[in-house]
Amino acid sequence: MKNSLGSYIEGKIYELKVAGELLGRGFDVYMPFVDSGVDMVAIHRVSKKILFIQVKKAKYNAKRRRWDFRNIPLKEVEDVSQGHGAFFVFVLERPNKTDLFLVLPSKFIKMHKDNLYPVNNPGRGRSVAIIVEEGFGETAAFIKLKGKEERIPVRLNNWDILLG
């Protein structure tokens, strides 16, 4: 119980970090009492655009120079994708304890699900892992694809995608 409570608290801390980022970028943020696959709903104050947000966090793996986001259930991706714009915000914790963020639309995960790493997750159904490798420069990174040399370039701290 202690470990799961610690994990729950840590997850909530990162959700609040993302909420703070969204508030500072012109969104009002609403968080449900019970997590049912959507960590928060954000409404842009000017455009009134409504977004469903799911937050995931990973620590930096210095040996491999990457972040591994494991156990992303595809059912969760489908559920979050219903209705309004749905996004996953991946929090990349760096060794110096500062964070970077990668914002991906749920449709990106749906589109690439067959090329992402499959994860055996009996309790939550078919899942994938997203592996984010360091790029060159502060905001450059790559998403590694399963069994391929090909990587998808992505830009970190790409909050503008939410309104794009």
Structural topology:
Blueprint: H1 2-24, E1 27-30, E2 40-44, E3 50-61, E4 66-73, H2 74-81, E5 85-93, E6 99-105, H3 106-112, E7 117-119, E8 127-134, E9 140-144, E10 151-155
Parallel strand pairs: 3-5
Antiparallel strand pairs: 1-2, 2-3, 3-4, 4-8, 5-6, 7-8, 8-9, 9-10
Helix pairs in contact: 2-3
Question: Could you give a quick summary of the protein structure above?
Answer:
With 164 residues, the chain is an alpha+beta fold.
Verbal overview:
The structure is a single chain. The chain is of the alpha+beta class. The protein has one domain (2-162): Trna Endonuclease, Chain: A, domain 1 (3-Layer(aba) Sandwich), CATH 3.40.1350.10. Helices cover 23% and strands 40% of the residues. It contains 3 helices and 10 strands; from the N terminus they run H-E-E-E-E-H-E-E-H-E-E-E-E. The protein has helices at residues 2-24, 74-81, 106-112, and strands at residues 27-30, 40-44, 50-61, 66-73, 85-93, 99-105, 117-119, 127-134, 140-144, 151-155. Strands 1, 2, 3, 4, 5, 6, 7, 8, 9 and 10 form a 10-stranded mixed beta sheet that branches. A hairpin with a 5-residue loop joins strand 5 and strand 6. Helix 2 (74-81) crosses helix 3. The mean pLDDT is 91.
